[in-house]
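User: Second chain of the day. Same drill as before.
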Amino acid sequence: QVQLVESGGGLVQAGGSLRLSCTASGRTFSSNVMGWFRQAPGKAREFVAAINWSGGSTKYADSVKGRFTISRDNAKNTVYLQMNSLKPEDTAVYYCALRTGNSGSAYYIFPSEYDYWGQGTQVTVSS
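Assistant: Same format as last time:
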């Protein structure tokens, strides 16, 4: 089993920044794809960003491209999401997810493509 624990959420004013972290423990597998999703109240869970094992392939939702950056430190089993220029519409619970299996691509944008999920961390952006 894999356990994912997110941290770094909070309340920030529009235009501000936050950095989310997600640390994996347990059977983390020798290679995987890590992703970030978010879910606002009354809305479906949506893709935010993903990164492959080497970090050489990343994928972003159009809504966050140029503002958010995903990265990972495999020695620490941790993936990060640096969020800059935050907007009120970024308010949501942010979840990290892990997809097992060796892949050179990060183009996995559907929740069903991921095998493990964290509990989520709340991000609130005030206007």
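The mean pLDDT is 95.

User: Great, on to the next one.
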